[in-house]
């Protein structure tokens, strides 16, 4: 027979909680306890509050740039819920704040980072998160490397890495997927397909029917999930995490979601996308959907919502206060950490900057006054 | 925790180095292999990855026998994917392992530029000292093998511009071993540049362990007529030139820099104070080259010692030619070095 099929594949789509609040009992039964769903919803609302406040901080000149997360909280929270905090590693890009907080990052770190302070990337000890990665996709290889290193050490840890639909066009995505699969590294690739890479729509990013199917070429499972469905995301990520922990290697998950905000505060999405498209996705907002679920199951009412909204405001107000209360870094931080042990030349540069040279003192060129002991 | 990458004790650099003379003559490539193998036996976190390094023993046979000794978990053949294995190595280094990443040629590292230049040297800085990147990138650098314009890169001028990395360019087997061992023990990313033309060079290499500290030049010839500064393969051209000049009664002070970052500028200035003349020999393009940097620092720090403008001997400022004769004309050679030294004495 001159021609025959040598490989066939299928890609599954998973949805448990649909946009009308309908729940697939078969897939979703006993998946997340009522108590946990309530807690996750509360976290989701708090993260949304932080997101909105961060936007306002930027607009009022109190923050440099901020990439809003709104609309994508279910993908972040569903993923983080499937990880073991303190054991597993989370290798982020920059639009999954809710997952970082669940995995142990104090909320003010994110604000501090986007306020233009590198110390927002100084992850506290014991928190298994790497610094935010702004160049698109370069961190996926680090995630594969961390997973491989952990595998070599037989630690039983799993790595989850987030990236967007645009990042799948980077060579690093393919190289990371290939390495992870060849080396059977314990890692979950979580693609947040939010339909837009700044102004480039998903259709211009790939000719593939799905992003999930890109897994097939690398010999790993690929699954598409409704990214605004907390239950669906948790289910598929949990399966992938368990498989990785059991030595089953990597997985790719495409969480289909939508960037309800602009790419960052430096962008205005109204210039390139239709209001009708946005409106359709606003109706699929994971917050609305989860609240419907809670109300249907008698786990939530208006009174609780009012209390939660107030609580979220108080929490976020404190977080902003903490972030804004942190003093600017000392001038010597400009040089510190260039090398593990500072060479003499850099020490000289540092000492010169601190003590002399008109025009080189930050106070003299209009920057904020540095710490006295700097 | 992340800080585990920074808690490695430094080697004892105060220990006296073993004699350079002896009869344990091995090839440059064997010295490199010995350095890696010794460190891998000492530290289970050290591993080697790259194209063809395991079963094929490396494109230049540097890792011959290492797969057999250390197994395929530590000597790792990778897909043809430089950015891939460079980034994977960086992740593993961040996590506390001590990867050695072999680029078959530094020319091929250009497709991994973001990983090696935009990630590795900045990771510690960006994370406020939390994520070290103790990694060695090594491979062949420099023209001379008729590999044409795209495969004959001298990356030192381009890459040394980046703060946060260290750069080593050994010229002989003895230094290769001591410097590579120091590189593997170093807490920062080290770019280790080997030259294919030198890999079969033979010299005495002590069997014992020794570590050559970075930022210390080696004085290979003593003289007071002119200071000659070089590193890597052109050091050998300088040695030939020194012999030729000595026959004319001109004795040069020849410094082999061994590391570019850090640069032992103090030794250069000390020598210049004696000779008052300097020629810098560098096998990369002249514009923004290491030679330019050396000359700049000489002007900044030793201007009053100069009796003649500093002279650079670089390649010609063109892409590396393919033809053997053109390539030879393009590279620095002993004749050009002799002329340059004589020019400073006019």
Please characterize this protein's 3D structure.
With 374 residues, chain A is α/β, with parallel strands linked by helices. Chain A has 14 helices and eight strands. Chain A has two domains: 12-324, 3-Layer(aba) Sandwich (Rossmann fold), CATH 3.40.50; 333-373, no CATH class. In chain A, strands 1-7-8-4-3-2 form a six-stranded parallel β-sheet, with helices on both faces. A two-stranded antiparallel sheet of chain A has the order 5-6. Chain A is globular, with a radius of gyration of 22 Å. The relative contact order of chain A is 0.15. Mean pLDDT of chain B is 94; it is low at 1-6. Chain B has helices at 28-42, 66-70, 82-94, 113-119, 123-126, 156-159, 173-185, 234-247, 265-275, 290-302, 324-330, 334-345; strands spanning 25-27, 46-50, 75-77, 98-105, 136-140, 166-168, 190-194, 202-204, 218-221, 226-230, 252-256, 259-261, 278-281, 311-313. Chain B is an alpha/beta fold. Chain B has two domains: 25-204, Rossmann fold (3-Layer(aba) Sandwich); 218-344, Rossmann fold. The longest helix of chain B has 15 residues, at 28-42. In chain B, 34% of the residues lie in helices and 17% in strands. The radius of gyration of chain B is 20 Å and the shape is globular. At the A-B interface, α6 and α7 of A face α3, α4 and α5 of B.
Task: Chart the SSEs and their pairings.
The complex is a heterodimer of chains A (374) and B (346).
Chain A: E1 12-14, H1 25-28, H2 34-59, H3 73-81, E2 89-91, H4 97-102, H5 107-114, H6 138-152, E3 159-164, H7 171-182, E4 187-193, E5 196-197, E6 200-201, H8 202-205, H9 214-217, E7 222-226, H10 230-245, E8 251-256, H11 275-282, H12 286-296, H13 302-325, H14 344-355
Parallel strand pairs in A: 1-7, 2-3, 3-4, 4-8, 7-8
Antiparallel strand pairs in A: 5-6
Chain B: E1 25-27, H1 28-42, E2 46-50, H2 66-70, E3 75-77, H3 82-94, E4 98-105, H4 113-119, H5 123-126, E5 136-140, H6 156-159, E6 166-168, H7 173-185, E7 190-194, E8 202-204, E9 218-221, E10 226-230, H8 234-247, E11 252-256, E12 259-261, H9 265-275, E13 278-281, H10 290-302, E14 311-313, H11 324-330, H12 334-345
Parallel strand pairs in B: 2-3, 2-4, 4-5, 5-7, 6-7, 10-11, 10-13, 13-14
Antiparallel strand pairs in B: 1-8, 6-12, 9-11
Helix pairs in contact in B: 1-7, 3-4, 8-12, 9-10
């Amino acid at each position: 027979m001159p021609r025959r099929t040598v490989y066939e594949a299928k890609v599954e789509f998973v949805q448990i909680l649909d946009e009308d609040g309908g729940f697939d009992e078969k897939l979703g039964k006993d998946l997340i306890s009522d108590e946990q769903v309530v807690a996750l919803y509360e976290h989701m609302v708090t993260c949304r509050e932080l997101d909105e406040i961060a936007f306002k901080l930027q607009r009022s000149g109190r923050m440099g740039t901020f990439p809003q997360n709104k609309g994508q909280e279910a993908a972040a929270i569903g993923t983080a819920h499937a990880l073991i905090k303190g054991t597993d590693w989370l290798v982020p890009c920059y639009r999954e704040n809710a997952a970082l907080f669940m995995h142990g990052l104090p909320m003010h770190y994110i604000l501090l980072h986007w306020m233009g302070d590198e110390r927002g990337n100084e992850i506290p000890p014991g928190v298994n998160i790497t610094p935010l990665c702004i160049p698109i996709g370069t961190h996926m290889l680090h995630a594969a490397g961390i997973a491989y290193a952990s595998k070599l050490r037989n630690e039983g840890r799993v790595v989850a890495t987030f990236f967007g639909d645009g990042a799948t066009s980077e060579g690093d995505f393919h190289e990371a997927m290939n390495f992870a699969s060849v080396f059977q590294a314990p890692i979950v690739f979580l693609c947040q397909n939010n339909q837009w890479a700044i102004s480039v729509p998903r259709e211009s990013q790939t000719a593939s029917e799905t992003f999930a199917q890109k897994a097939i070429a690398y010999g790993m499972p690929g699954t598409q999930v409704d990214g605004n469905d907390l239950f669906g995301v948790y289910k598929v990520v949990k399966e992938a995490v368990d498989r990785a922990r059991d030595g089953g290697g990597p997985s790719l998950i495409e969480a289909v979601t939508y960037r309800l905000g602009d790419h960052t505060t430096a962008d205005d999405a109204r210039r390139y996308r239709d209001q009708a498209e946005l409106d359709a996705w606003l109706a699929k907002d994971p917050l609305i959907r989860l609240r419907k679920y809670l109300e249907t199951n008698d786990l939530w009412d208006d009174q609780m919502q009012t209390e939660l909204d107030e609580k979220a405001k108080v929490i976020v107000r404190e977080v902003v206060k903490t972030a804004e209360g942190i003093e600017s870094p000392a001038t010597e931080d400009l040089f510190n950490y260039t090398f593990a042990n500072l060479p003499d030349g850099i020490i000289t540069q540092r000492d010169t900057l601190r003590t002399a040279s008109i025009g080189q003192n930050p106070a003299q060129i209009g920057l904020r006054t540095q710490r006295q002991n700097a | 925790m992340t800080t585990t990458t920074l808690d490695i004790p430094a080697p004892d650099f105060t220990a006296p180095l073993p004699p350079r003379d002896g009869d344990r003559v091995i090839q440059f490539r064997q010295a490199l292999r010995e350095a890696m193998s010794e460190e891998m036996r000492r530290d289970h976190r050290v591993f080697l990855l790259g194209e063809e390094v395991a079963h094929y023993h490396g494109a230049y046979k540097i890792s011959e026998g290492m797969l057999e000794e250390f197994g395929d978990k530590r000597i790792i053949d990778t897909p043809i994917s430089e950015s891939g294995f460079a980034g994977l190595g960086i992740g593993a280094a961040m996590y506390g392992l001590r990867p050695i990443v072999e680029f078959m040629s530094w020319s091929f590292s250009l497709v991994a530029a973001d990983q090696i230049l935009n990630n590795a040297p900045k990771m510690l800085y960006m994370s406020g000292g939390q994520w070290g990147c103790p990694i060695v990138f090594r491979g062949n650098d420099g023209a001379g093998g008729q590999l044409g314009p795209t495969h004959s890169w001298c990356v030192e001028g381009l890459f040394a511009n980046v703060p946060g990395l260290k750069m080593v360019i050994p010229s002989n087997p003895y230094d290769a071993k001591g410097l590579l061992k120091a590189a593997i023990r170093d807490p920062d990313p080290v770019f280790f540049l080997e030259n294919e033309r030198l890999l079969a060079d033979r010299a005495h290499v002590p069997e014992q362990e020794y570590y050559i500290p970075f930022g210390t030049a080696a004085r290979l010839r003593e003289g007071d007529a002119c200071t000659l500064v070089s590193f890597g393969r052109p050091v050998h051209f300088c040695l030939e030139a020194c012999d030729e000049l000595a026959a004319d009664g001109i004795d040069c002070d020849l410094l082999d820099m061994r590391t570019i970052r850090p640069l032992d500028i103090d030794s250069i200035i000390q020598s210049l104070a004696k000779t008052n003349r300097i020629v810098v020999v560098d096998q990369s393009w002249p514009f923004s080259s290491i030679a330019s940097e050396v000359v700049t620092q000489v002007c900044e720090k030793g201007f009053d010692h100069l009796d003649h403008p500093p002279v650079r001997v670089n390649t010609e400022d063109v892409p590396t030619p393919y033809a053997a004769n053109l390539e030879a004309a393009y590279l620095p050679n002993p004749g050009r070095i002799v002329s340059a030294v004589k020019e400073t004495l006019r």
